[in-house]
Amino acid sequence: MNINVYVASAFSKDGAGGNKAGVVFMNQPMMSSQKKEVARKLGYAETAFVSESRIADFKLEYFTPKEEVDLCGHATIATFVILMHLNKLTKEQYHIETNSGILVINVTDSVIFMQQNKPAFYEELLPEELAECFNVDSIDRKYSIQIVSTGLKDILVPIKSEQTLHKLQPNFDKIKDISEKYGVIGMHLYTVQEDRIVCRNYAPLYDIDEESATGTSSCAVAGYLYTHNYLQQDMYVFNQGYSLHSPSEIFVQLHHDQESNITGIFAGGRGYYCETKQLLV
Prior knowledge:
Blueprint: E1 2-12, E2 19-25, H1 32-42, E3 47-51, E4 58-63, E5 68-69, H2 73-85, E6 93-98, E7 101-108, E8 111-116, E9 120-125, E10 145-149, E11 153-158, H3 162-167, H4 172-182, E12 186-193, E13 196-203, E14 208-211, H5 215-227, E15 235-240, E16 248-256, E17 262-280
Parallel strand pairs: 2-3, 4-6, 11-12, 13-15
Antiparallel strand pairs: 1-2, 1-17, 3-4, 4-5, 6-7, 7-8, 8-17, 9-10, 10-11, 12-13, 13-14, 15-16, 16-17
């Protein structure tokens, strides 16, 4: 089977960088094994497979080179970048069917915002549990280490400074072990410098050592900071990908009621079309 694959970069900054994803519009059914093979041959962290939906505008499935995941922010943004490139967007709001539920996509000028699930909070970890993953002296003890999800579970790890964050030497085998133990996608490390937030994301359990932009993880951090009263804003800006020489910018739009309860959370960003490939699977 010949597969036409579009490639777009999502969460780009100033028209460059970002996180590349493959996008496949399925004109005929594909088996999971074929989707994995496409994802493996492309070599990107995730590839989105788009098909018709009876309950939304589109159905999206997400595959890493290793297996299917329920949701992927940057691959969703990449999908809508390609739809925009193909002049197939005719309105400002869409609904997508995913394994994480029906989600809203808002298209405002060149920025695409993707609805996430409201933050769900899970176990807190002790810094010592991460001792073999990287130097735990780099952890900012002002914040807790907690598993949070807005669609995918991540271990959120606060780091003391941007300089410390970029100097980290992760042990991917140990991060994989911890991820497997807690049933998470991986670890999202972040540092808060006033209102500037810089991140690194590791998911070796899914064959993704480090990723240059992660929308779902950014929403998890925003939800954590807001809920615990560390930094309460309606819009957060996350910077990621510098260690991979692919600077990325992720916007998180947070909605709340008068009692400061989160009522909605969206990951947003810009992107650009890269190329079209043909693969045989």
